[in-house]
Amino acid sequence: MKLRSVVVNNRKAQLELVLRSGRTYPFPFAKLQPRPSSKDRIREAYVDRELGSEAVTYVLASGAEGSVHIDHALEYNEDPKYLADLLAHKLTVEASKRAERSGLSRRELARRLHTSVPQLYRLLDPTNTRKSLSQLVGLLHLLDCAVDVVVKSRRAA
User: Fold this and answer.
1) Under a CB-based contact definition with an 8 Å cutoff, are residues 44 and 58 in contact?
2) Which of 62, 64, 96, 99 is the most buried (most CB within 10 A)?
3) Residue 29 has what DSSP assignment?
4) Across the chain, what does the average pLDDT equal?
5) For the chain, what are the domain ranges?
């Protein structure tokens, strides 16, 4: 995800990160490091091209600098797509580790999953976000893993 702009909102004490899609994600000053204060305000904030337009860099009046990656804002705002992709990534990493330890060849894993070897490689690729959880759960089951989904109230956590 690429950022289009950033707005410093001193009244709400937050940075507002604007994606190219137009969607805005607030990020509070309290989560910034270094943290701005009433005596050391943000002098400048900009989309950092050196960070691939995926982060915002800000400069305080004292000269201290900090950056916020879009992933931090998505996690803070509990973006549903981001959280689902994060879960899929964790399952993919675990499946990759287990596949290496299993001793089964990629061809044998693909055969047991009733899919092709290139599709198996896509399934094991942590950067590929276009996969279903059912495929990952099936692969983990094939690798002799039990996958339990626990749903609980956040207040109890």
Assistant:
1) yes
2) 99
3) G
4) 94
5) 3-76, 80-147
pLDDT confidence band for 156 (50 / 70 / 90): low
What is the Cα–Cα distance from 97 to 136, expressed in whole angstroms?
Answer: 13
Helix (H, G, I), strand (E, B), or coil: what is residue 131? coil
Structure tokens at 115: 């899919």
Range 80-147 has CATH code 1.10.260: yes
Closest alpha carbon to 141 in 99, 88, 90, 86: 99
Instruction: Render pLDDT for 40-97 as a digit per residue (tens, 0 to 9).
Output: 999 999 999 999 999 999 999 999 999 999 999 999 999 999 988 988 999 999 999 9
Q: Taking 60 as the threshold, does the pLDDT of residue 157 lie above it?
A: no
Give the whole-angstrom CA distance, residue 23 versus residue 98.
38
Angle at 28 between CA 43 and CA 150, to 5 degrees: 150
